[in-house]
Amino acid sequence: MTATLCGGVQRKALLMEGQLEETLAVSKLDATRAREWMHRVISLLDVALRQLHDQEHAAQGTLLEAASLLRQQVHPPGAAEVPDARGRLLAWQARKVRDYIDSHITEPVFVADLCALVRRSEAHFSRSFKRTFGESPHSFVVRRRVELAAQYMLTTDASLSDIALRCGFADQAHLSKHFRQAAAQTPAAWRREHRLHDEENGTPPVERFATP
What is the DSSP string of 15-33? Predict the structure, then answer.
């Protein structure tokens, strides 16, 4: 009986030792991941600083990506979270999708890529997205591009063709089509009207046109 008891104690000791080694290994892995994550953020910020000299819109995308990484570290997705009972995206999922769209606003944004971000099927994702943002993924992306174009029109002297490309539109005609649908005016007419309004009233255009 004594031998059996001793054997049990030894097995427990070995088990505890194994668990301790496993815990230490996980801690070392977490520390390594944290260092890799910090190096990634620092690298993105360095790239953005270089881009600010002659590629303002590229720097914006890089800074948005760095900000997204920071948000994920501060507010990581909870492992025990369950889908919203009303069928909406969870807060971290909505934030991750929105950050991805903003950081890729000059490129094609595919629903399949958004689905992969939050690990949902395309049909399920599209329903949840619409319940969360009140519009389809495509409409949301177009609206963000129109809002960004409006900011550029009020805060820069860039041509409409250049603004169209900065905001992910194929060309000026593509921008004009969606801008007229959103504002019931052509981009050129809207720009003249609002710039005149700003000059007369001294209203900071960035404050009036901050995107949600």
Answer: HHHHHHHHHHHHHHHHHHH
Dump pLDDT digits (tens) for 82-128.
Answer: 445 578 999 999 999 999 999 999 999 999 999 999 988 898 999 99
Structural Rg of the chain based on CA atoms: 25
Tens-digit pLDDT profile for residues 125-181: 999 999 999 999 999 999 999 999 999 999 999 999 999 999 999 999 999 999 999
C-beta of residue 37 within 8 angstroms of C-beta of residue 65? no
- Record the tokens describing residue 34, joined without a space: 């944290």
6: helix, coil or strand?
helix
Neighbours of 40 (CB within 10 A): 13
Helix (H, G, I), strand (E, B) or coil at 142: helix
CA–CA distances in Å: residue 123 to residues 21, 85, 129: 44, 17, 10
Q: Which of 142, 151, 139, 161 is nearest to 191 (CA)?
A: 151
